[in-house]
Amino acid sequence: IASHMICSTELAEDGKLGFGFTPADDLEEINIWPDDHPRPTYINKKLEREAKSQHTNLLKEFAGCFAWEYHEMASLNRSIVEHRLPIKPGFRPYAQPPRKFNPSILGEIKDEIQRMTEAGFIRPCRYAMWISNIVPIRKKNGQLRVCIDFRDLNRATPKDEYPMPATDLLIDAAAGHKMMSFLDGNAGYNQIVMAKRRYIQNCFQMSG
Length: 208
Hints:
Strand content: 15-25%
Helix content: 25-40%
């Protein structure tokens, strides 16, 4: 988890939730670790003093549940979840032509790849069957996120038909509550490891 934001809401005059809900409230930065090892996070500036103190103490109590760096993110246990990549029949490996990047961000790309390698999220591949280009994305906080153009690989895998949660149902479930708490996941997909057996099987089928 990268950050935790507590957003307060106000009740309308009729006592119903509505007019006061402003998820774009200004945030206040707080440190939930000792000063010699700062770990900043954010809470809503509109919280009352008592509520702000309670939420701050709660975050400090469970500060170990959050991660600010890649190396602090432990992988999920394989008994809980593994990522499998089935390939539809008739698709052969495809190597995308290499693309050029703006020299002004090339250093940031290399630094991000180095951090991901040191954390064990990725590893060098000597003879890759599928080659996909890097797609650098600038986040709102200024950080450069290194994504991958997996469009060719997506076409070769079965479509995931799992439905996304309905937004209106999520909003209705929040009705009547005075506060909402949002957790922002930090590169959570990197915590799910590839299934070893499926990975080896796919590599064998592609090379056969």
